[in-house]
Amino acid sequence: MSDLPRAMRNYLKEHLPLYVFVSVLFITGVIFGAVIVQALTLEQKQELSRHLGNFFQLIDQGSEFDGKRSFLQSLMMNLKWLALIWLFGLSVIGLPLILIMDFVKGVFVGFTVGFMVGEYAWKGMLFALVSVVPQNLLMIPVLLICSVSAISFAVYLIKHRFLKQQLGTSVPLAQYMGTSLSLAIILFGVSFYEALLSPLLMKWVTPMLLSFG
What we know:
Layout (H helix, E strand, L loop, with lengths): L2 H37 L2 H19 L6 H22 L6 H37 L1 H29 L8 H41 L3
Helix pairs in contact: 1-4, 1-5, 2-6, 3-4, 3-5, 3-6, 4-5, 4-6, 5-6
C-alpha cells in the first residue's frame, strides 16, 4: 500500500508536462470554438436557432425519448472516440492525430456552450449546464488521460523502433490496454447521464428558453 502513493507521484512527475500540454491544447480548442460563434453570419445563426427552436419544441411537447436507444448511441459514439485515440497511440503516425482530436473536442464544447450563451444569455448557460457540462466533467478527463496514455505509448514505440533502445513492449502494451479498458467503463456512466438523466433536466429548462425574449 505504501508503494501506491509513491507510484502515483512518479507517474504524475513523469507525465505532468504531457497533461499540461494536452489540457492547454483542449482549452485552446474551447476558445477557438467560442470564437467561431462570433464569426457566424446572421443567416447561419438564424438557421442554428431555428433548429434549436424545433428541438426545444419537441422537448416541451413531451416527446418521448427512447432511453435504451439513446444510451446505446451515446455509448457507441463515446467508445468510438476513445477507440480512435487508442488506435492512434499504437502507431507513430497517429501521434499528431491524437492532438487534433483533443483540439477538435475542445472546439465542439466551446462552440456549443458559446452559441447557447450568445443566443439565450443566462438561460442558455443554464441549458448548457444540464445538457453539456455534466457529462463532459467525466468525458474530458477520460479523453485527456487516454490521450496522455496514447502519446506516452507512441513515444515508447519511437524509442523502441527508431532509436533502437532495447525496450520490451509487452508490459507497456498491457498497461496501455488496461488503462483504456478502465476508461471505457467510465464512459458507461457518461452515456447513462446523456441518455437518461440529461433529457429530464433539459425538459425542466426548456420552457425558460421558449419564453426567451
